[in-house]
Write a structure and sequence with these properties.
single chain, 237 residues, alpha/beta, Spore Coat Polysaccharide Biosynthesis Protein SpsA, Chain A, six-stranded mixed sheet, 8 strands, GlycoTrfase_DXD_sugar-bd_CS, Glycosyltransferase_domain, mannosyltransferase activity, transferase, Nucleotide-diphossugar_trans
């Protein structure tokens, strides 16, 4: 019998400069409400640093050498899920209904971005790390971590003068490249969540929603959704 994804929700926010904004606190409450029997863990800087030093001290130097904080925030979420399992959720997600039924027979789940984003980046599909769920010690996460914390990856981090390098070193393109490197059998153990379930809005629709201009397009987009990703992009600030 396969292991079940642990009932733990993880959310991270670096509080060394600004506290968690009120609108993110409200969205976090939607996850606590919809998952009353799940443990909720809020990871601040102190807790994240303590976690790595205790469980992954071999990665501490590279973790602190990344030029951008977002690379650390990407990397820590992989380590947390690999060690503890559960579901990681960005703070710019609103829960609409529990994902329990969707996750119950899965081992590792990563979200696909809307098809319109693929055209922008000229990719056949895009995997992101905004909402992920996994059992502990899953092979896909293991491979991601090995790539993210490689010396080659750290060197690559300093080849660009803007944060686009994040996609190549800790973000979407790492996830896609590692997934494409899996065997057919290994891929079958990774569930790529359709955009309609948790990424129902693309960037333009998310912009409309954030302005409060709710219309029939948005209503139609969420008909199958368990959650809404609003793409606040606070990491780029």
């Amino acid at each position: 019998m396969k292991n079940q994804i642990p009932k733990i929700i993880h959310q991270i926010w670096s509080d060394k400069e600004i506290p968690l904004p009120e609108h993110f606190l409200k969205m976090a409450d939607t996850w606590k409400y919809d998952y009353p029997d799940w443990q909720y863990i809020y990871w601040n800087d102190y807790k994240m640093n303590s976690f790595i030093l205790e469980h992954f001290p071999q990665y501490w130097e590279i973790y602190n050498s990344f030029p951008y904080d977002i690379q650390r925030w990407d990397a820590i979420r992989y380590l947390i899920l690999y060690k503890m399992g559960g579901m990681y959720v960005d703070f710019d997600f609103e829960s609409l209904k529990p994902l329990n039924g969707l996750l119950c027979d899965k081992q590792c789940c990563f979200p696909q971005e809307p098809i319109s984003h693929c055209g922008i980046f000229k990719r056949n599909f895009i995997i992101n790390n905004s909402l992920m769920a996994s059992v502990p010690y899953h092979n896909y996460l293991k491979n991601i971590i090995e790539k993210v914390f490689s010396k080659e990856n750290l060197e690559l981090s300093f080849t660009a003068r803007n944060k686009d390098i994040v996609f190549d070193t800790t973000g979407q393109w790492v996830l896609v490249d590692v997934y494409e490197g899996l065997s057919t059998e290994e891929r079958s153990d990774v569930y790529l969540i359709p955009p309609s379930y948790i990424n129902p809005f693309d960037l333009p629709l998310a912009g409309i929603a954030k302005r409060g201009s709710w219309d029939k397009r948005l209503e139609y987009s969420i008909k199958d959704a368990y959650a809404i990703h609003y793409y606040f992009g606070s990491w780029t600030d």
